[in-house]
Amino acid sequence: MRGPTITFPDGTRRDFDHPPTGAEIAAAISRELAERALAVMVDGELRDLSEPITTDATVRIVTPEDPEALPLIRHDAAHVMAEAVQKLYPGTQVTIGPAIENGFYYDFARDEPFTPEDLAKIEQAMAEIVRADKPFVREEVSREEARRRFAALGETYKLEILDSIPEGERITIYRQGDWFDLCRGPHGPSTGRIGAFKLLKVAGAYWRGDPKRPMLQRIYGTAFPTKEELDRYLHQLAEAERRDHRRLGREMDLFHFQEEAAGSAFWHPRGWTLWREIESYMRRRLAAAGYVEVKTPQLIDRSLWERSGHWEKFREHMFTLEFEDRALAIKPMNCPGHVQIFNTRLRSYRELPLRIAEFGSCHRKEPSGALHGLMRVRAFTQDDAHIFCTPDQITAETAAFCALLMSVYRDFGFEQVRIRFADRPAVRAGDDAVWDQAESALWQAVRETGLEVTLNPGEGAFYGPKLEFVLQDAIGRDWQCGTLQVDFVLPERLDASYIGADGGKHRPVMLHRAILGSLERFIGILIEQYAGRLPLWLAPVQVVVATVTNDADSYAREVADLLARQGLRVELDISADKISYKVRQHSLAKVPVIAVVGRREAEERRLVLRRLGEQAQEQLDLETAAARLAGEATPPDLARGGATRPPAAQ
RNA sequence: GCCGGCGUAGCUCAAUUGGCAGAGCAUCCGCCUUGUAAGCGGGGGGUUGAGGGUUCGAGUCCCUCCGCCGGCACCA
Question: Does residue A312 belong to any structural domain of this protein?
Answer without folding.
Answer: no
